[in-house]
Known about the structure:
The chain is α+β, with helices and mostly antiparallel strands. The chain has a domain at about 5-140: Beta-Lactamase (2-Layer Sandwich), CATH 3.30.450.240. The protein has helices spanning about 5-15, 25-40, 75-80, 90-95, 130-135, 140-190, and strands spanning about 45-50, 60-65, 100-105, 110-115, 120-125, 200, 205-210. A hairpin with a 5-residue loop joins strand 6 and strand 7 (about 205-210).
Amino acid sequence: MKETPLQLQIYFELALSVGNGAELNAMLKQSISAYLRKLSCAAGMVLRCPSANDDDARYQPVLSIPKRIDRNPAIVYALEMLPNRCQDKEWKAFLCQLPLLVTAPNKMQIHIMELPHYGLLLLAKNGDPLPEHVTKSLQPINRKLADACHACIQNMKVEQLVDQLKHEVEERETAQVKLARSKEKYQGIFENIQDVYYEATIEGQVLEVSPSVVDS
């Protein structure tokens, strides 16, 4: 079906509003708000599918609008249809069915769409569902959102690494200051001691002698 100029304008504005920002939650909040506003949806949720290395291979809610969307009976109904684990054959078969439309018992329409290599996007709509050609047209925008999620995660890892390096540098500088103060304190004691003080190796080689040896 050919898109109308109005629909193309909606996609264009939605694409501009999605995936902006370096902080994951802020970016997703702005992006999901744009989906809801432009597509006349009542609620939205982003789920992350963990990597194969994660101990917990179940989907993980990242952000939802409204916040307690998981208490919505329609959303609960849709979530129960998801495979329990993200790394098995059942999950891969499930992804092949997307985008998927689920009609909840309360007649709310739940659209389940893939965020490639990241997770899922759920959009809840009252009344008529989004036409099939619309959900297909959203796929490039969904890919942009998924790429933005990955970029935010990488940015967070870089920030954590920078913070760790800063902490290590600060600890090293603090240790150096303490060492300099200890050395200064030791030097003062060494230079003003009344008794003769010296340091020598096991072989008897003298390494250092206090200035008080001159007065002895």
